[in-house]
């Protein structure tokens, strides 16, 4: 592995992660009327309640978790979106109790609910992660795909992980897939209780790689180019290097000094 390759890997590690651990997240839960439909003899809302309980058992307690529901109070009302728990900490019992108390009644304002979650998380100032579980398409004259592009462009590090629960092929699935992809999030399908448990578990335990320690480079020799093709120097006064020596990830800074 060349010095150039290692340098590129370091930059990617620092800039490319969308993990949840150590940050704030909000679970956005669909409680629209369609959640009373049955899958394998059980209502979707009942399955979702149990799946969220399973997710909470695996949740990193250092990550604050909030809760937003939509469609749970009124029929035919696209404004029926409620912040049930602010993401100030992680309270497993509070989240579980709130989810178990949800009814399933109304519309599916996916876009406005996700936007509300982003605003609660102050997505233009902080890293923000939303986990959306929905069994249907947007029914309130909005475009989740366009919203994803907007939040990604305006946010510091906004990510929407989306689980499509018992979604058929068509516009609903396409909307949710696009929302996730536009924000760099995961899109997962769940056809039944086991798959919903698995999907929530996979998202809840997703963690970024350990952060690179910048001070680990302090032992490297000053005055040597990282790659002669790029003229990138640790010391601008250093002479051009003839070549960048090859070494492996097992080599240390002392090995690099000897090679130089």
Short description:
The protein has 260 residues and is of the alpha/beta class.
How would you describe what is shown here?
By secondary structure, the chain is α/β, with parallel strands linked by helices. The protein has 8 helices and 10 strands. It has a 6-stranded mixed β-sheet, with helices on both faces. Strands 2-3 form a two-stranded antiparallel ribbon. The protein is elongated. The protein starts with a helix and ends with a helix. 35% of the residues are buried. Residues 1-19, 207-216 and 224-230 have low confidence and may be disordered.
Largest pleated sheet: 6 strands, mixed
Low-confidence stretches: 1-19, 207-216, 224-230
**Percent of residues in beta strands:** 15-25%
Give the % helix: 25-40%
What is the distance, rounded to the nearest whole angstrom, between the alpha carbons of the first and last residues? 15 Å
| SSE order, one letter for each helix or strand | HEEEHEEHHEHEHEHEEH
């Amino acid at each position: 592995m060349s010095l150039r390759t290692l340098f590129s890997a370091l930059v990617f590690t620092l800039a490319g992660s969308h993990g949840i651990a150590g940050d704030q997240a909000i679970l956005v839960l669909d409680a629209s009327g369609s959640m009373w439909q049955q899958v394998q003899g059980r209502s979707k809302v009942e399955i979702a309640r149990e799946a969220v309980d399973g997710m909470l058992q695996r949740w990193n307690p250092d990550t604050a978790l909030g809760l937003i529901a939509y469609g749970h109070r009124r029929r035919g009302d696209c404004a029926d979106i409620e912040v049930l728990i602010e993401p100030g900490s992680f309270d497993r019992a509070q989240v579980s109790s709130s989810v178990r108390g949800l009814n399933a009644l109304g519309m599916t304002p996916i876009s406005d609910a996700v936007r509300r979650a982003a605003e609660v998380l102050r997505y233009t100032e902080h890293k923000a992660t939303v986990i959306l579980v929905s069994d249907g398409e947007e029914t309130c004259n909005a475009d989740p795909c366009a919203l994803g592009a907007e939040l990604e462009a305006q946010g510091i590090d906004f990510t929407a992980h989306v689980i499509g629960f018992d979604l058929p092929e068509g516009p609903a699935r396409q909307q949710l897939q696009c929302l996730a992809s536009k924000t760099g999030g995961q899109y997962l399908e769940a056809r039944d209780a086991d798959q919903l448990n698995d999907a929530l578990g996979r998202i809840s335990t997703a963690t970024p790689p350990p952060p690179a320690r910048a001070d680990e480079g302090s032992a490297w020799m000053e005055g040597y180019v990282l790659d002669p093709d790029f003229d990138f120097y640790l010391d601008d006064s250093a002479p051009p290097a003839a070549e960048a020596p090859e070494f492996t990830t097992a080599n240390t800074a002392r090995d690099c000094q000897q090679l130089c």
